[in-house]
Automatic annotation (TrEMBL):
Pfam families: DUF192. Keywords: Signal. InterPro entries: DUF192, Saro_0823-like_sf. Coiled coil: none annotated. It comes from Salegentibacter mishustinae. Gene3D superfamilies: Protein of unknown function DUF192 (2.60.120.1140). This is DUF192 domain-containing protein. Residues 1-20 form the signal peptide. The lineage of its organism: Bacteria, Pseudomonadati, Bacteroidota, Flavobacteriia, Flavobacteriales.
């Protein structure tokens, strides 16, 4: 009985001490806003070569950049996008974890031909958004632009890096 009282007293003491907060209030951590950095220019083209739209792009071509993508961005101008470049063509899937803006995701094959879309991907949704077809390039734009610009499967992307 004494042993049970000692154990119970110890548990109560530990839980009381662990629940006490320090009187000091912690200052909020200030984070820097992530801003667009133009790393290239992309032209979206119809199969006959007619220009659909030209945009400035950020390029995600390493593992960290591809995993982070447009996460934590509050907005993006309509004449901008992010182009993900992979070393090979393969089935791809994206999701919207920590992404605050709705996006259109366009998957392109190794020959730069659009093979599929995920339109109006919703912020913070962790549902897998697969390419359906093998893709080597993936372009993220503000939601609605794929329809506004009439981008279709079979259209092409041409891009170049800038200094």
């Amino acid at each position: 009985m004494i042993r049970k009282c000692i154990i119970l007293s110890a548990i109560l003491t530990i839980s009381f001490l662990s629940s006490c907060k320090d009187d000091e209030t912690e200052a909020p951590i200030e984070t820097e806003e992530i801003t667009f950095t133009k790393e290239g220019e992309a032209t979206l083209l119809k199969p006959n070569g007619d220009t659909i739209q030209q945009i400035d792009i950020e390029i995600a071509d390493n593992s960290y950049e591809r995993q982070t993508g447009l996460m934590y961005r509050e907005s993006m101008e309509d004449n901008r996008g992010m182009l993900f470049i992979y070393d090979n063509e393969a089935p791809r899937a994206f999701y919207m974890k920590n992404t605050y803006i709705p996006l259109d995701i366009i998957y392109f094959a190794a020959d730069s031909t659009a093979v599929s879309f995920q339109k109006n991907a919703q912020p913070q949704d962790e549902t897998s958004l697969p390419s359906g077809e093998p893709a080597q390039f993936v372009l993220e734009l503000n939601a609605g632009l794929a329809d506004d610009w009439n981008i279709e499967v079979g259209d092409k992307i041409d891009f170049e890096r800038v200094d």
